[in-house]
Write a structure and sequence with these properties.
Elements lengths: L10 H6 L1 H4 L7 H13 L3 E5 L6 H10 L7 E4 L12 E7 L5 H12 L3 E6 L2 H6 L5 E3 L10 H15 L7 H10 L3 H4 L4 H8 L3 E6 L4 H15 L4 E4 L7 H4 L8 E6 L6 H13 L6 E3 L6 H22 L8 H9 L3
Parallel strand pairs: 1-2, 1-3, 3-4, 4-5, 6-7, 6-8, 8-9
Helix pairs in contact: 3-7, 4-7, 4-11, 8-14, 10-14, 11-14
């Protein structure tokens, strides 16, 4: 399914195209050259700008590379950037529409500080204000939250260029993520079955490390697609606070869902096991999917949980495309 054949009025088509969208965008060679020059010059850090669905790409990249990156990687979802982000930092501004006011405000602040800024967008105001030599355009026609595969492939490869790392082969990642759907039949329950278990409950996603932003993405997709409350918590932090609230989970129909990785260290495996035991009365679920590496694990679970959010929307007769409350808020703000 090519992107031109995907209807922007059909969320199911957009989610089904997830694997293919991972390999849709080829970054302009001139932009890669400029990104590699940043590595040669030396940089103090990388700052990702974005809101909503456009912010998730930076969160995924930060969680993947932060343990090995020689410089700080930070994600900003606000109107301004931290004071320490200066001319020796590289900024990636991500806005699918190109008109996200918070991202545009942070972009302007970064420009005042003489940061090197790369933009990833379909157009809009972000394209207009950006240096054309530093803008990677991506195809339009999708809901912003459905554009994650394209936004991520560009953002990750740009960041790898900044850090002097080999680029991820998204053709191969795309193939592996498409194959992961076979596990929905074997090692995971079907998205429809999980959606039925979530119905009349409040899903609470627990995850660690590279799967923490996947849990957050799942929460956001259920919020936006199904218009349904969901929560996400990161372990080990949740072991120091949220775990005490678990006594009320059954009273409020909270359903813990643990996103567990094949790449966890022994101590973290123990933490998950202990947390599950303490929350056992809430009849929690474990989601774990076979993958060759962390990125494929993240994306395979993302595709699965995106599909769950759609099934939950259908189960409740909800329009997965509409974002009426977000539109109302923008109207009230005059945007």
């Amino acid at each position: 399914m090519g992107i031109s054949s995907i209807s922007e009025r059909n969320m199911r088509e957009m989610i089904q195209a997830f694997p293919e969208l991972l390999r849709t965008v080829k970054i302009d060679d001139r932009i890669i050259e400029r990104a590699e020059r940043e590595s040669e010059k030396g940089l103090k850090g990388v700052c990702f700008l974005g809101m909503g669905g456009s912010s998730i790409a930076g969160e995924y990249v930060r969680s993947l590379l932060s343990e090995t990156s020689p410089v700080p990687l930070i994600s900003v979802r606000d109107y301004s950037i931290p004071r320490h982000v200066d001319k020796d930092w590289v900024v990636i501004a991500v806005s699918y529409s190109g008109n996200t006011e918070e991202t545009l405000s942070a972009y302007r602040e970064a420009r005042k500080r003489s940061c090197t800024i790369f933009s990833v967008t379909t157009g809009g105001e972000l394209k207009r204000v950006s240096d054309t030599s530093y803008v990677q355009l991506i195809p339009s026609g999708l809901q912003p939250r459905a554009a994650l595969p394209m936004l991520l492939s560009v953002t990750l490869n740009l960041t790898q260029s900044f850090l002097g790392l080999d680029h991820t082969d998204f053709n191969e990642v795309s193939r592996q993520v498409a194959l992961s759907k076979k596990e929905w039949v074997g090692n995971l329950m079907s998205p429809e079955t999980l959606a039925s278990k979530l119905n009349d409950s409040v899903p609470v996603f627990f995850a660690h490390g590279h799967l923490a932003p996947v849990a957050y993405r799942a929460k956001c997709q259920i919020n936006e697609n199904a218009k349904y409350t969901a929560l996400s918590w990161e372990i080990p932090e949740a072991n120091h606070n949220e775990i005490e609230a678990s006594a009320s989970y059954k009273r409020f129909s909270f359903l813990p869902i643990f996103l567990e990785s094949h790449f966890e260290n022994k101590r973290m495996d123990q933490r998950f096991s202990a947390t599950r035991a303490i929350l056992s009365s809430a009849n929690g679920l474990v989601l774990k999917i076979g993958s060759r590496d962390r990125l494929e694990e993240m994306l395979s679970l993302t595709l699965y949980l995106d599909t769950v959010s759609l099934e939950l929307a259908d189960l409740n007769g909800v329009d997965s495309l509409s974002v009426d409350k977000i539109s109302e808020l923008k109207a009230r703000l005059g945007g």
